[in-house]
Amino acid sequence: MIPTLALSLGDPTGIGPEVTLRALALSRDEPFVPLLVGALDVARSARALVGEAGDGRPLVAIEQAGDARAD
After folding, report:
1. Is 1 helix (H, G, I), strand (E, B) or coil?
2. Looking at residue 22, what is its pLDDT?
3. What is the pLDDT at residue 44?
4. For residues 11 and 39, is the Cβ–Cβ distance under 8 A?
5. What is the chain's percent helix, strand, coil content, to nearest 5?
6. Which helix (H) or strand (E) holds 52?
7. How far apart (Å, rounded) are the C-alpha atoms in residues 33 and 60?
8. Which residues contact 19 (CB under 8 A, 6 or more apart)?
9. SS3 category, 70
10. Smallest Cα–Cα separation from 57: which of 17, 30, 19, 37?
11. Which strands sit side by side in the sheet containing 33-37, from one edge to the other?
């Protein structure tokens, strides 16, 4: 079974989201499913800035407890 790893997007008004996605891109060969904790629109904006280096895995973000949305 592949583990799920929850990661914070960091400060949405800072560099946190881009750094998180770039780190995911560096770990794309590792066997885990990333679950981003933060707003999906922030994750989408960060991916647009990072480009395809943004890992290639689908974005899944949790904005509130029990509210998971996928891209």
Report:
1. coil
2. 84
3. 82
4. no
5. 35, 25, 35
6. none
7. 9
8. 10
9. strand
10. 30
11. 4-8, 33-37, 60-64, 67-70
3 state SS of 51: helix
Q: Quick check: pTM over 0.85? A: no
Where residue 58 falls among pLDDT bands split at 50, 70, 90? low
**Nearest partner of 62 among 2, 6, 3, judged by Cα:** 6
Q: How many residues in total does the chain contain?
A: 71
Per-residue pLDDT tens digits for 12-55: 787 788 888 888 888 878 788 888 888 888 888 888 887 755 55
Report the distance separating Cα 15 and Cα 32, nearest Å: 23
Amino acid at 40: L
d(CA 45, CA 34): 17
| Token digits of residue 12 | 């949405």
Q: Using the structure block, give the residue that is written with the tokens 């914070």.
A: 8
The answer, yes or no, to whether residue 63 has pLDDT greater than 80, is no
